[in-house]
Design a protein that fits this description.
With about 280 residues, this protein is of the alpha+beta class. The chain has helices at about 5-15, 45-50, 65-75, 125-140, 160-170, 220-225, 230-245, and strands at about 15-20, 25-35, 60-65, 90-100, 120, 150, 175-180, 185-190, 195, 200-205, 205-210, 255-265, 270-280. It starts with a helix and ends with a strand. The relative contact order is 0.12.
């Protein structure tokens, strides 16, 4: 049986699995022996627990942290959010790993579409929030605010079909699918927040995006970013913030700006990127 057919068989069986983008294609993790649902009570013990030295490629946990958990770890209190009955973090211990190439073939057209979305914030409320934090930035209380908008709807879709179509349209470095019995999480992000290998740690901030055209190449995109005051200031701010964050946990003098303001090419846009590294 081909590896692609193995994926389809696992998917149709209803068994939980995770697909994660790798350098040469995708890694498929399944046959989970452990599933750890994280909360504020067990997060510290999960992170501090020491495991045996890795002897096989499935000696790892795969999953996600929610922002609520991460904020709590650094003692940042956030307003109580509406309860959506979804875990703040889950990690899985796989016992089976299958390598897939980047051309996953799967299609399921039998699903219902619903293009009517409920939005949790209107233009008036958004403007009010924007004006409030604009004053806080001017006063020096903070220097970055992310106003998030939630879109909500009900549809019956096949998560694997959705992920495959999304990957074909825009294959991103941080593409992944978490498929469990009662939910699925799909990512199509170009940005790797933290990468660690041994004591070496890096972060790659992306701040600056321009759409590709027939006349716009990487060199012209770089000139555009350098001349654009808004893109340059935003990029400088993100780089400074992430360099400061790494400096809090890395050895003194090891944090460096390894790549500064380069252009990376993706399927549809060009991104303005830097690379910050350090030693723990």
């Amino acid at each position: 049986m081909s590896k692609n057919n193995q994926l389809i068989e696992i998917h149709k069986s209803g068994k939980p699995y995770i697909i994660y983008r790798s350098k040469l294609g995708f890694d498929l993790y399944t046959d989970f022996s452990k599933k750890i649902v994280l909360n504020n009570d067990n997060i510290n013990s999960f992170l501090s627990k020491k495991y045996k030295k890795k002897s096989k490629e499935t000696d790892l946990f795969v999953g996600f942290f929610g922002y609520e958990l991460l904020n709590n770890l650094i003692n940042i209190k956030i307003p109580k959010q509406n309860n959506i009955n979804f875990p703040k973090g889950i990690f899985y211990k796989p016992e089976r790993k299958i390598f897939l190439n980047d051309k996953i073939d799967y299609k399921n057209e039998y699903y219902s579409k619903n293009f009517k979305f409920k939005i949790n914030i209107n233009r008036k409320s958004y403007t009010k929030i924007f004006d409030k934090f604009k004053k806080k930035i001017k006063s020096g209380e903070t220097y970055q605010i992310k106003i998030c908008t939630k879109y909500k709807t009900k549809s019956k879709i096949d998560p694997l079909d959705f992920f495959v179509r999304l990957s074909k349209t825009n294959l991103a470095p941080e593409a992944f699918l978490i498929k469990d019995k009662n939910y699925s999480i799909i990512s199509c992000s170009p940005e790797n927040l933290i990468n660690r290998k041994g004591s070496f740690i890096s972060t790659k901030p992306i701040a600056g995006t321009v759409k590709k055209t027939k006349i716009l190449n990487k060199n012209k995109a770089l000139k555009y970013f350098k001349k654009n005051i808004k893109e340059t200031k935003e990029h400088n701010m993100i780089v400074d913030m992430e360099r400061n964050d790494l400096s809090r946990i890395c050895k003194v003098g090891t944090v460096k700006l390894s790549k500064q303001k380069i252009v990376e090419e993706y399927k549809d846009p060009f991104h303005y990127v830097s690379l910050i590294t350090g030693r723990l």
